Amino acid sequence: MSLLDMSSGGPSLWAPEWLPRLPQRLVEMLLQYFGAPEWLVTTAGWITAAATVVGVFLGGFALLSLVERKTLARVQNRLGPNRAGWFGILQPVADGIKMLTKEDIVPAKAEWLLHLAAPILIVMPSILALGVIPYGREWTPVPLELGLLFFFSVGAFTELAVFMAGWASGSKFPMLGAMRAISQMVSYELPLIITTVGVVMITGSLALSDIVEHQVGFHLGFIPKWNIFTPWGFSAGIVFYIASIAEANRCPFDLPEGESEIVAGHMTEYSGFKYALFFMGEYLGLFAISGLGITLFLGGWQAPLPGLGFVPSWIWFFAKLVVVIMSYLWIRATFPRVRIDQLMRFAWLCMLPMALLTIPAAGIWVFTANPDGSHGILGWLTTVPLLLIPWIIITIIFNRRISPATRSYTFADS
Amino acid sequence: MEPSADIKRLPAPARWSIPGIGLLKGMVVTAQNMIQSYYRKERMTTVQYPEERAPISPNFRNFPFLCYDGEDPKAGLRCTACTICETECPPQCIYIVLERDANGKSLKRPKVFDIDVSVCMNCGICAEVCPFDSIYMDGEYELSKQDRFNGLLFHLDRLAKSADYHMKLRPKEAGEVAARRKVEVDKKRAVQAAKDAKAQTDKDMAKPEPTTKGEPA
Q1: What CATH code is assigned to B64-163?
Q2: Is the ipTM here above 0.90?
């Protein structure tokens, strides 16, 4: 409770906790010193805060593009980029220069306005979504009351942008990619959002900072009270994790791109900086969705063990982010792409029921809680079978292999 | 028709295992790959090209070069400018001019020996027909040039390479050639020595005549 008081009360005096907000404070103080009006000070402060977040994540995007290539190379027993700078550290810069200096080609049959708007609109929701995530005890760029709702409502815009890109390109591969993207994203957005309902029920708030503060503390003195360590939270976390891979169009759910099948999916007709924007949007979306997953299930900015509270909270957040992103890379390095019918079957047969089951499980978890908020054996005895038995049934059903229907073409076979 | 009638059901797996265990096994394999790539040298099979090169096979044959014995490429050149290779070359990429002294007598060496590498098709006929063990196929592969006309027209100084280079490139073939040439040279030297000795004796015998003839003058 003391931690909660500290975060809701005045700012902690320790400097590193404030470090990410330092640019904002500096700009505000500078403008106040020169006697700028109140609205200007506030606006400039907001813009600086936003620029800090965008800057951090654009740097992260550049770094991730290198780390991803290096990691995948190591898994395949190669070295990866090692020419530009020390250990290839300048590779993102070289890529950026290459992308910027490339010719921007708009196909003759493209709807030029939509073709131009799509890459911009794909980056925008990712950046907006990054704004509401609490990165540290003192660092939530936009502390919205309905942060979770805001996150998903702007996140849904990505689908529109992807379809815009596919349709406006006026070509076949982008169209196929966009259709795949829509069917995939709509199917996986459902379990993704449903799993968060349990978290909202437990917390009783849609504000992401409240959700983090609800996970403060430790069971038995060393197990963090994160949502992932409850039966319903474990189930919801796994479903959320798989759905977030699919939402971010990452391997093994990268059907919308499908390099080996449909060139680059909705990005086929893009080149130069617009293509780079698609990549940026994809990686920023990855950061946003993993940041949300950390906030909802992995305790946000909190230390994983007691006694580690002296490390600034935002460092814990980014450490968790690195772990989650590396797990995405690991999965990408391991699994081949799934087929579209496998993807759909998995979403509707496996993910959706499990996501729906987390809601009653979370409800039971709330009602079986002791008056002081701790959970006895009753909660575990009721929620674990509720989730485990359907999971076994679903896996037995799912284990029956189904091959796609053999089609016969009347005119081709004769 | 029922939609399910289209779906062909494969037989169920022989035994039921924990779902996801196969995925985890795969992830362990990739993790091993990644971690072992840092300390097991035999995993990293890629040759880092500009810094290190894979050894080329003696069977690798690229554009021709001219072989010379000894240190001086001009004096030791085996080529006698016989122009057999020039005549045989299918794409006609060899150009030879015989060097003559002031009196127009052949010096049995090329004044100009040019090979247009942009025309050469690496057939190796020149190396096969050469009766003087002079022209061989090279093992060079970094031949890109900024200037595709003059840069790829190789002159004598570019083409001449020592017998040691040949020995290093193709030890077996060069060793055979060297042994054969040594026998020939020895034979020639013996013949020459005999000829010289004969000439010397002739000279010695003829010597008194001019001296006697010159005395009155």
Answers
A1: 3.30.70.3270
A2: no
